[in-house]
Amino acid sequence: MSLPSITEDPRWAQMCARDRAADGRFVYSVSTTGVYCRPSCPSRRALPAHVRFHDTPGDAERAGFRACRRCHPQRMGEASPLRFAIGHSSIGLVLVAEGTDGIRSILLGDNEGALVRELQAQAPDAALAIDPGGVHDALAEVVDHIEAPHLRMTRPLDLRGTPFQRRVWQALRSIPPGVTISYGDLARRLGMPRAARAVAAACAANVLAVVVPCHRVIAGNGALSGYRWGVARKRALLAREAQA
Length: 244
Ligand SMILES: [Zn+2]
Prior knowledge:
Elements: H1 10-16, E1 27-30, E2 35-37, E3 51-54, H2 57-62, E4 66-67, E5 82-89, E6 92-99, E7 102-109, H3 112-122, E8 128-130, H4 136-147, H5 163-173, E9 181-182, H6 183-189, H7 196-204, E10 217-218, H8 231-243
């Protein structure tokens, strides 16, 4: 007696239809690539002989598969939690949150509870898990970078935003320590001289403090302008970079 073919499994039809409604109910893995995907993944279909279904991303990972970089199936439902830890720096507390694709948030503050609430507001669907051991290396690298801005970050950053926001954030990362730029100049550098306001809004939406150096953007008249984590911190960061 032969086993029923995987193509008779109702999940096969959902997978072939790239059914978004099935996302969160299961994932499928492909033995030839070692990758697992959500049902709606736009990638090319695999042969039935190479496909297996798993109830959760965790099951697929335990079976030795890694998450697809196109459809990010690990972010579904009970997927791997967003781990975070809080440490100290010379400009106050630093919260670093890291997911499977890299650092998601770097937040500054004076109060641990307020930092966690800020993270929750940013990632309302993520299961947050405080994990000082797991995030230790990322937190240490971020604090080192805050104290010595010329040190390069080596850990990957997981920049979540619109394509426009990501363009602005990447442009910010090209501004070296000790240099400031106006919103208008940044817009011109991006080839969008009329978009200074949109550029300013994208800077304000940055959630990777210091590492995406939105503090290096100032008003056209040279004033410090605002800063999500307080103008006093912006002033302290710029003063330190000017001395280095
Ligand atoms: Zn995929």
